[in-house]
């Protein structure tokens, strides 16, 4: 089971249908493998249905929002969901390791799939960090949401394994390292380019989009 999950606000936005298509894809892929978060979204969906049904007459008391968040944290895992089509495979049309990866620098290869999400403002990329490889130290100019699809990586914030959900912003600086014996592949949604912070790699920042 995943150890790193979307926060309560992200799950609420997902349940309400307010997330962008690429962000919703990251959450859905996590939900397909995480009974804990799935149970939280099921409860949010039920609450939303009740509110919609009684919308003309409902007046929520003060503190209701905080109470909902507290209930989410106490919700037990749900049972496994029925089989569903793999959304990422349908999107890409092939296995992750057979994609036309492009070497970016060092141990990192990327595949930009932003064009699969027309009219979306964020950049959507698949990133592959070679087994045992290390990414340059960097921070973020905006928000970055990442889902681990294969393998695992470690950084200053811990170890992130398959289906873990990672949300970073300009307050985070890290140096990911692929751990284990297989390449680490992630799906990332970025609102702005990363900013390299290494002594020499920072010279490449003007060329990063």
From TrEMBL:
Domain ChrR-like cupin: 97-187
Domain of life: Bacteria
Pfam family of the protein (one): Cupin_7
Cited Gene3D superfamilies: Anti-sigma factor, zinc-finger domain, Jelly Rolls
Protein name: Anti-sigma factor
Species the sequence originates in: Marinobacter lutaoensis
């Amino acid at each position: 089971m995943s150890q790193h999950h979307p926060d309560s606000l992200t799950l609420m936005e997902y349940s309400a249908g307010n997330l962008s298509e690429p962000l919703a894809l990251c959450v859905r892929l996590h939900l397909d493998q995480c009974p804990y978060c799935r149970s939280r979204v099921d409860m949010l969906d039920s609450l939303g249905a009740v509110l919609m049904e009684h919308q003309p007459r409902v007046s929520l008391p003060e503190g209701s929002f905080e109470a909902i968040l507290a209930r989410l944290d106490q919700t037990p895992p749900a049972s496994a969901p029925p089989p569903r089509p793999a959304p990422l495979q349908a999107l890409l049309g092939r296995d992750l390791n057979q994609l036309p990866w492009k070497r970016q620098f060092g141990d990192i290869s990327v595949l930009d799939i932003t064009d699969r999400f027309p009219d979306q403002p964020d950049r959507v990329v698949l990133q592959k960090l070679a087994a045992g490889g290390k990414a340059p130290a960097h921070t973020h100019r905006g928000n970055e949401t990442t889902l681990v699809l294969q393998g695992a990586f470690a950084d200053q914030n811990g170890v992130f394994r398959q289906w873990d959900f990672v949300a970073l912003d300009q307050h985070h600086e890290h140096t990911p390292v692929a751990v284990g014996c297989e390449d680490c592949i992630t799906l990332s949604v970025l609102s702005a380019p990363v900013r390299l912070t290494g002594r020499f790699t920072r010279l490449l920042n003007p060329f990063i989009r």
